[in-house]
Inverse folding.
């Protein structure tokens, strides 16, 4: 924890980006693993024991949030699902705001499974002095999944529509951060926003950083450690 | 990323870890990275321990370093190579 706050520590800690690797260790498909609370919890503890790490993600699926926001997923045997249909893709930019999906909460989509998995894994990891890590999708990841490639043309042609979509996506990220920090009690909450690395720095500053702030506020208010993964 | 308000950042395999370490130190944040996962993927690639050494050599020069991967593990990972990487890390931690 001290290292993640920029301090020099005696021993370098280690925190793996686990993906669906636990499914391989458990001998089950990624599709089954990612939708089963018992397997998710067992996988986190198994990886923690096998790799002797200091922190372990509960779930590493960048598509988790958008599956309850109208995106159609194609499940895979060996990796997280892919988004094959984006609900806002074909809309004219001026209609985006009117079609934004209702915001999720802890009862929607796969959240009940993830919360149950967290409740199972947390005490086991505490016994081992291993931090539980929640990974929430970042604003650009969510906006990109909802809008598809049209997101990037919006940035040029209809920046006000893109702005509204990023603001909505930031709210979704903040809700995920709240669930991980306050309901599950993760020690570390990471925002994973890999598609944001496709943006030029000016766009990253304008569209992404402001919409990360609600998540950081929630994480820090809960006394947890924040991390940005990209 | 370093000025985003997060207390730490994790970076992928494309970034030079010592460059990120300098930025992290300047911003008083932690940084996680960035073992090439492909080094643990294929038997024919160079020894994974060499990349662990790179991470530890570059990362440990700066406060706030956390050893991590440059990307998520895949299900095609070669388990003995990953175990080898972890052993190499533990010998240097």
């Amino acid at each position: 924890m001290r290292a993640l706050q920029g301090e020099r520590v005696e021993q370098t800690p280690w925190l793996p980006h686990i993906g669906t690797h636990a499914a391989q260790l458990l001998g089950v498909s990624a599709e089954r693993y990612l939708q089963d609370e018992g397997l998710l919890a067992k996988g986190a503890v198994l990886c923690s024991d096998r790799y002797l790490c200091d922190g372990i993600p509960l779930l590493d699926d960048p598509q988790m949030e958008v599956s309850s926001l109208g995106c159609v997923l194609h499940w895979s045997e060996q990796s997280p699902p892919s988004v094959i249909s984006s609900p806002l893709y074909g809309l004219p930019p001026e209609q985006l705001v009117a079609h934004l999906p209702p915001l999720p909460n802890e009862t929607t989509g796969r959240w009940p499974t993830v919360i149950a998995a967290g409740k199972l894994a947390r005490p086991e990891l505490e016994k081992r002095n291993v931090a539980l890590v929640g990974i929430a999708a970042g604003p650009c990841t969510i906006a990109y999944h909802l809008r598809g490639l049209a997101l990037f043309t919006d940035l040029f042609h209809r920046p006000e529509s893109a702005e509204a979509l990023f603001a909505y996506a930031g709210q979704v990220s903040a809700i995920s951060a709240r669930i991980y920090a306050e309901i599950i009690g993760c020690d570390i909450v990471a925002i994973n926003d890999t598609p944001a690395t496709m943006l030029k720095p000016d766009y990253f500053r304008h569209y992404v950083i402001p919409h990360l702030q609600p998540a950081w506020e929630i994480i820090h208010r809960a006394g947890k450690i924040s991390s940005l993964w990209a | 990323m370093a000025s985003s308000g997060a207390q730490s950042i994790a970076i992928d395999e494309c970034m030079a870890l010592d460059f990120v370490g300098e930025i992290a130190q300047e911003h008083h944040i932690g940084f996680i990275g960035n073992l090439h996962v492909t080094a643990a993927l294929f038997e024919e690639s160079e020894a994974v321990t060499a990349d662990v050494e790179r991470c530890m050599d570059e990362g440990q020069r700066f406060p706030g370093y956390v050893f991590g991967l440059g990307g998520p593990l895949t299900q095609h990972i070669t388990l003995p190579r990953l175990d080898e990487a972890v052993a190499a890390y533990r010998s240097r931690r």
